[in-house]
Request: fold
Amino acid sequence: MAGCVIVGGVDTPACANRFAAPGIERDKVWVFNKEEIASFTSTVTGEVDVIAMEATKVAFKMDVHKGSAMFDEELVTSEDSAPYYTQKFSAKIISTDTATMTAIEDMVDVDLVFVAKVKNGKFRVIGEDGGVKMTLNTYETGKTSGDSVGEMLEFTGTNNGKARFFFDTSEATSEVTLDALLTP
Reply:
């Protein structure tokens, strides 16, 4: 790259560290029912470092097909409304049993929050403000070896700000903190 996008005025990382590896890690996606989150706590620099759950409520973990998960967000503005971000998380999962099918059905018409670990080690909080809802679910068996198999899921929502980062002391501690939310 010939130069950096931002060269002054803010505290920025070295140019070599600015651009992330693409994709979401396949076994590092945590799913929350937004109604079961009591609060988010932020660090002084703005990262989420605590997700407090209501009593007896837990998060779930989703294992996605390698290379199938992605997150994107888009700023939407119009003359007659305040700007907002459309956030979208999509992934393919293997569905070979009734429990998985039931879990997918349980996500229909529910405001969810995802924390997804991007392959550069950063965790993104998707749907923190307004949640995201399932907007697509397709299933395919494929016909021949090498065909795509599984459930394609897509979640979309409107949020007031960009998806923040989750960070608790270090990358390893962040994972431990999120995994601790999987059990009551």
